[in-house]
Design brief:
28% of the residues lie in helices and 24% in strands. The chain is built from eight helices and 13 strands. Strands 11-10-9-12-13 form a five-stranded antiparallel sheet. It has a four-stranded parallel sheet with strand order 2-1-3-4, sandwiched between helices. A four-stranded antiparallel sheet has the order 5-8-6-7, covered by helices on one side. Helix 2 links the parallel strand 3 and strand 4. The longest helix has 14 residues. The mean pLDDT is 93.
C-alpha cells in the first residue's frame, strides 16, 4: 500500500481553502493507498516516510518563496516529489515567460523591472503590473496611462520587499473571452475551464481579489490544446511533470497565447469537473508506484 502525502498549507488570513482536498484524499484512500493531507511547513512531517508527496494547495508559498523552495529541495531529496523541485523552482519565478517566448511559444509580451532598475511604463495603453513571484493576483493591478505615478509607487513597494516587477499590456480580449485554463494530469489533457477578468480598473494592487471569477466548464479548441502542449514541451524537465495548468488568452491576432504556466500548486477545479477525480487518482497512484 503506497503512502502518499497531498501537500497543502495551514489555514490563515488571506489563504484560500482547498475545497477539493478532502474529496481527493478520500478518493486516493478508496483506491487502495494511504493518503494524508500534510502542510508543507509542518515541522513534524516525516517526508521520508511517504512514497510520494504531491503538491496540491500550498497557496501561501508566494509569501515565503525562499522558505518554500528550500522545503521543496529538502522534500525532493527524501521522497519522490511531484512536481519535482527543479520544475517548482523554475516555475515559481514568472521570468520563465521570457524563456518560453525565446523558445517560440506564444506568450503575453512581458518586461521585467528588477530592484534598482527604473521602470519604463506605457504612456498610451492599459497595462498590468505584478510581481514575478505571486499567486492569485496578489500584488497585481491594472493601470491606464494616467495611473503612472501610482504604478511607480507600487513597483517601488515591491522592490522594497525584494520582488522583481513584471509589466504586461492589458489583454483586452480577457474582458470578452476571459482566460482559458487547460489542465493536464499524467501527461494527458484532463479538462478545461474558463474564467472572467480578475483585474478590474481602479482596484488597488494590495486589495484582495477573486482569483477565478465566473469559472465555467470550457471545451478547448485545437489551437488552444496545441499552444498548451507547445508550452509544456518547452519546460526544462517537463517530462517529469505530473500536473500542469496552462492559462491562455487571445492575443491581438486572435490566436491563443500563454498568460501563465502553473506547475507549482494549481487549483484543479475538481468541484467543477467531478468526472476528473478518477483520472487524477489514477495519475497519482501510477506515479507512486513507478
Amino acid at each position: 500500500m503506497p503512502r502518499i502525502a497531498l501537500v497543502t498549507c495551514r489555514p490563515g488570513p488571506g489563504v484560500a481553502v482547498d475545497e477539493d482536498l478532502p474529496e481527493l484524499v478520500a478518493a486516493v484512500r478508496a483506491a487502495g493507498a494511504e493518503a494524508l493531507a500534510v502542510a508543507w511547513d509542518d515541522p513534524d512531517a516525516d517526508w521520508a516516510s511517504f512514497d510520494l508527496a504531491v503538491i496540491r494547495s500550498t497557496w501561501d508559498y508566494s509569501w515565503r518563496p525562499a522558505e518554500f523552495l528550500a522545503w521543496a529541495g529538502k522534500c525532493g531529496s527524501l521522497t519522490r516529489l511531484a512536481n519535482p523541485a527543479e520544475v517548482v523552482r523554475w516555475n515559481a519565478d514568472k521570468r520563465y515567460l521570457g524563456e518560453l517566448a525565446a523558445a517560440g511559444v506564444p506568450t503575453v509580451p512581458t518586461r521585467y523591472v528588477a530592484p534598482g532598475e527604473t521602470p519604463e511604463l506605457p504612456r498610451e495603453d492599459e497595462y498590468v503590473v505584478k510581481p514575478t513571484s505571486g499567486a492569485g493576483a496578489r500584488f497585481a493591478a491594472r493601470y491606464t496611462p494616467d495611473g503612472h505615478d501610482t504604478a511607480v509607487r507600487q513597483i517601488a513597494r515591491m522592490h522594497a520587499e525584494g520582488f522583481t516587477a513584471m509589466v504586461q499590456p492589458y489583454v483586452r480580449s480577457i474582458d470578452a473571452a476571459g482566460e482559458r485554463a487547460l489542465q493536464f494530469f499524467g501527461g494527458r489533457l484532463l479538462h478545461a475551464s474558463r474564467k472572467g477578468a480578475v483585474l478590474a480598473p481602479g482596484t488597488a494592487y494590495d486589495a484582495e481579489k477573486v482569483a477565478h471569477p465566473g469559472l465555467t466548464v470550457w471545451e478547448p479548441t485545437e489551437a488552444e490544446i496545441a499552444t498548451a502542449e507547445r508550452a509544456l514541451a518547452a519546460v526544462p524537465g517537463g517530462e517529469e511533470l505530473l500536473y500542469a495548468r496552462v492559462d491562455l488568452v487571445d492575443g491581438d491576432d486572435g490566436r491563443p497565447c500563454v498568460m501563465e504556466l502553473e506547475l507549482v500548486e494549481p487549483n484543479l477545479f475538481l468541484s467543477l469537473h467531478p468526472g476528473s477525480v478518477a483520472g487524477v487518482v489514477a495519475g497519482i497512484l501510477e506515479r507512486a508506484g513507478g
